Amino acid sequence: MAGSVSVFFGFSSSLFITISFLLFLCFVSSLSTVNGVGFGGGKLGGKTEIKDVETNKEIQELGSFSVNEYNLKFKREKGTSLTFSEVVKAEEQVVAGTKYFLKISAVQNGDVGENKMFDAVVVVKPWVHPSNELLSFDPSTTN
């Protein structure tokens, strides 16, 4: 039988088995990504929790950016501004760029030391200038 494989395909049976195995692996991996699940086990395009938010400099900078943008856009309208404290929770989602869902602790100016929670959504597109865009910023309905 091995001789017929060698004659038919023009190479040894061990090479035929190796190539067959590699093709099988490619087929199986393509099935797993078609159903929206990659090798990491997460859903493609789904939200992923960011760990160690308190020490993540990039996430804290995005939180500060969000509060600054909010102040620029709504300070006149709302009559007050916010002072950034910290990002306490964050998730990311890969889209055309990366979308960050941030839970931000901030102090509303005029409220002495009382932190309030806000939900912000920021998209980062490194190839566009400016690369950060605040999509939403609202008082949080959950803590």
TrEMBL record:
Membrane-spanning intervals of the chain: 6-28
Alphabetized SMART domains for the sequence: CY
InterPro entries: Cystatin_dom (IPR000010), Cystatin_sf (IPR046350), Prot_inh_cystat_CS (IPR018073)
Highest taxon listed in the record's lineage: Eukaryota
Pfam families per record: SQAPI (PF16845)
Keywords annotated in UniProt: Membrane, Protease inhibitor, Thiol protease inhibitor, Transmembrane, Transmembrane helix
Keyword Transmembrane helix: yes
GO molecular function, one term: cysteine-type endopeptidase inhibitor activity
Cystatin domain ranges (all copies): 42-140
Protein name from the UniProt record: Proteinase inhibitor I25
Originating organism: Macleaya cordata
